[in-house]
Write a structure and sequence with these properties.
By secondary structure, the protein is an all-alpha fold.
Length: 189
């Protein structure tokens, strides 16, 4: 296969495209960008509610894929790896002080009792919730974002992360406990 000739990669699986990219076929990477830039943007924008910040996060995420391409293992779904990188970029950007306005409202997710408190249903507290989630360790932040912000089922999270459902539930429970402690000052007002 000629590395410089354009080839149609649309029929390839994501993991095969990454293997090709790891071996110098840059058009395989272009195909991955085409496949995932919109869905990654939507995921970032659901959190930031800012087009420019979301576009920057998508670009930074794909730059990380390029930079760390050799650390990817095809035993994991490419989409899970990419979305984990995206979540880490979001958390990292927040922690570095490049605060992004997070203003979308969360309305009573069924799985987290503390969020059912009506005192959380205003813009400031919703922003505090997002900030608190972003400050959690990555393993909790990613899962809580998927469960609370994106309102995904445990099964959907399992499919995207490859983690056993029991592990997901356990980490979400521990993350909720940390979240309650962090949000307690907002609830006591």
């Amino acid at each position: 296969m000629n590395r410089t000739a354009r080839q149609d990669y649309s029929a390839y699986e994501d993991e095969e495209l990454m293997r090709l990219y790891q071996n110098g076929f840059n058009d395989a990477f272009r195909e991955l960008v085409i496949r995932y830039q919109s869905s990654l943007f939507l995921r970032m924008n659901a959190f930031t509610r800012n087009r420019e910040d979301s576009e920057d996060l998508v670009q930074d995420s794909f730059l990380c894929v390029a930079r760390f391409k050799h650390s990817y293992s095809p035993t994991y779904k490419f989409s899970n790896w990419l979305f984990t990188i995206g979540s880490n970029q979001l958390i990292s950007r927040y922690r570095k002080g490049r605060h992004m306005l997070m203003t979308s409202h969360i309305t009573e997710p069924e799985d987290i009792e503390i969020l059912q408190d009506n005192r959380l249903h205003n813009k400031n507290l919703t922003t505090s919730l997002r900030i608190a989630i972003a400050r959690l360790p990555g393993c909790y932040a990613t899962l809580l974002t998927m469960r609370i912000i994106e309102e995904r089922s445990y099964q959907e999270i399992h499919v995207d992360t490859g983690l056993p459902v029991g592990t997901i539930k356990s980490r979400i429970k521990r993350g909720r406990e940390r979240l309650r402690v962090m949000l307690r000052p907002h609830l006591e007002r």
